[in-house]
Amino acid sequence: MRINKEIRADRLRVLSEKGDQLGILTLRDALAMAEAAGLDLVEIAPTAKPPVAKIIDYGKFRYHQQKKDKDSKKAHIQIKVKEVKLKPNIDTHDVQTKVKRAREFILKGNKVRITIVFRGREMLHLNLGRRVVEDFCASLADISTVEAPPKMIDLAKARLVDEGQLKMYKIMMGV
Q1: Torsion over CA of 158, 130, 148 and 77, rounded to 10 degrees?
Q2: pTM, whole model, 2 decimals?
Q3: What is the pLDDT of residues 75-120, one digit of tens each?
Q4: What CA–CA distance (Å, rounded) separates 108 from 89?
Q5: E strands along the chain, which residues?
Q6: Which of 11, 90, 91, 170 has the fewest CB atoms within 10 Å distance of its CB?
């Protein structure tokens, strides 16, 4: 956005501070009007024919623009992906503890990625890992649903969980 002397067009459609059209003026006349009012000439629509400029207080304009941008950022909700790591031979109480943490994440609006890490000979028993993940997802089924089935990603299977939906979990195969 160009202001005052930075504006390159010879003729401009000029708007007053209140938004009234003052007509098509030369750059010199528009600058003189802005200076007389103690305000700035700001190019609003540079691609229009002729370009549109408005006589306003540029500092105040920028302040309101930044405030509007900040408010729109606040309204935007960011969803984070939290990860819960398990092992295929995990004890039931440990699973319940991990389910409790995952439940907290989901209720806060985050997604949960369930990761099962296999080590050494555990790689021979992938069905145990699958069963652990299915039980884990079943215990979260009251507050969420499965978004995607397990996937092989770089020797990993994945599934994720989020509020209202179990999204994707990840089973690591080998560390």
Answers
A1: -60
A2: 0.49
A3: 777 778 899 988 889 999 999 999 999 999 999 888 898 888 877 7
A4: 29
A5: 11-15, 21-26, 40-45, 52-56, 81-86, 111-118, 156-162, 165-173
A6: 91
